[in-house]
Amino acid sequence: MGKTALVTGVTGQDGSYLAELLLAKGYTVHGIVRRSSTFNTERIDHIYQGPQASRRTFVLHHADLTDGVALVNLLREVRPDEIYNLGAQSHVRVSFDAPLYTGDVTGLSALRLLEAVRASGSGARVYQASSSEMFGAAPPPQNERTPFHPRSPYGCAKVFGYWATVNYREAYGMYAVNGILFNHESPRRGETFVTRKITRAVARIKAGLQDRLYLGNLDAVRDWGYAPEYVEAMWRMLQRDEPDDYVVATGEAATVRQFVETAFAHADLDWSRYVRYDPKYERPSEVDALIGDASKARELLGWQPHVRVAGLAEIMVDADIRQVADQLAGATVRIDR
Ligand code: NAP
Ligand code: GDD
Q1: Across the chain, where does the E strand assignment appear?
Q2: 216 within ligand 2 shell (Cβ under 6 A)
Q3: Does domain 4-185+226-248 fall into CATH 2.40.50.140?
Q4: Nearest ligand to residue 223 Cα
């Protein structure tokens, strides 16, 4: 019998890649989808199995991370071996506009889920999607021993989720781990995160659909990796004998400006003709530089990244160019694999 996993945030970038990975490994995957007035399953439609399918290995459930009772009921029904808590209000800039909501969904919900595991009597292993944003103002390189100094309500919420996970491990002997992932991107990245905003604009400018790209701070430094490789690290963390916390990163730094240059150059465009500054995209407090040291993941999980920032920008530009071409041709827009 294969294992059973429950994935919160299955409709998101990471959730969709993780569901594919687990299905390929023979898991039965249960995903939580929150109710929306418009379709929010675009990233998983290609693996969806309808309720009438003869043998379902991918099952979706309506629930919400803010509904603790629904979580308990779901855990009693699904009885997962592994839980991946990827659901969150994950946008840092938005967390300044909706700080209490972000605190609830991104922070308190991690505790809600851990408590639901306890209340349901589940022995499931739990992965918590922690973030390099927790390091905030702490100077790079950052690793598992770097003190946290969050710079946003989102970062504060993730610190809460991190410590709740450590506490449930220590207090109840739960197998609960934190993956402290640095920024990771893909053609499935949400359109308002900076990499995707840039690559989507490149494709639209190239096609004559857009003539300006407004951005905020071009000097911010990030360590950008490729999302499909990062979900492999999540899975590896739950296969170890003992639970522990791991940084996942490439160790390579680039500024937003460098990402812009690479993405525009890949489409033979001169970025300075199109990119303009808008202070609207600045944050009240910025995280200047995140560069991860993932030696522990390399040594203990045998995990290492292969796609680096320049290759990543090219993968994303190519995918957006294909997507714009599909749109212009009136064809069904494919989610890039
Ligand atoms: P994402 O694309 O924004 O996906 C977030 C997911 O959470 C979506 O499925 C979303 O549903 C769901 N969600 C939001 N509010 C919810 C609620 N109240 N109840 C249930 N589900 C809810 O994020 P991602 O990039 O895949 O990231 C996955 C996780 O890793 C997040 O926790 C994020 O904070 C964390 N993380 C991400 C990165 C990164 O660079 N990508 C780095 C470190 C940590 P809808 O589709 O309906 O919106
Ligand atoms: N989104 C956005 N839009 N960011 C911009 C823009 C813009 O127009 N212009 C400049 N930036 C800068 C931001 O100020 C930030 O320094 C950097 O680009 C990256 O911003 P995002 O892509 O929004 O990502 P993030 O680093 O704030 O957060 C992402 O990574 C975290 C891990 O470090 C998110 O995925 C978080 O969920 C994740 O935890």
Answers
A1: 4-8, 28-33, 58-62, 82-85, 125-131, 176-181, 184-185, 213-215, 221-222, 225-226, 246-248, 254-255, 275-277
A2: yes
A3: no
A4: 2
Report pLDDT digits (tens) over 61-90: 999 999 999 999 999 999 999 999 999 999
Closest-lying ligand 1 atom to the alpha carbon of residue 65: 19
Q: Which of 90, 95, 130, 131 is catalytic?
A: 131
Residue 230 is a catalytic residue: no
Where are the CATH 3.40.50.720 domain residues in the chain?
Answer: 4-185+226-248
Ligand 2 neighbour 215 (Cβ under 6 A): yes
In whole angstroms, give the CA distance from residue 32 to residue 15: 10
Instruction: Please give the distance of CA 56 from its chain centroid, rounded to a whole number.
Output: 25
Atom 29 in ligand 2: which residue has the minimum CA distance? 183
Q: From 83, 69, 97, select the one nearest 30 (Cα to Cα).
A: 83
State the ligand closest to the CA atom of 92.
2
The DSSP letter of residue 107 is: I
The candidate with the shortest Cα–Cα distance to 294, out of 251, 253, 252, is 251
| Closest residue to atom 3 of ligand 1, CA basis | 90
10-residue averages of pLDDT along the chain (337 residues): 95 98 98 96 94 90 98 98 98 98 98 98 97 98 98 99 98 98 98 98 98 98 98 98 98 98 98 98 98 98 98 98 95 64
Which residue among the candidates 154, 168, 230, 246 is catalytic per the annotation? 154
Task: Specify the ligand 2 atom closest to the Cα of 181.
Answer: 32
What is 194-221+253-286+307-329's CATH topology?
Answer: UDP-galactose 4-epimerase; domain 1 (3.90.25)
* Ligand 2 proximity of 163 Cβ (cutoff 6 Å): no
Nearest ligand 1 atom to the CA of 36 is 47
> What residues does CATH 3.90.25.10 cover in the chain?
194-221+253-286+307-329
pLDDT score recorded for residue 114: 98
Q: What residues contact 275, with CB distance under 8 A and at least 6 apart?
A: 212, 213, 214, 215, 260, 264
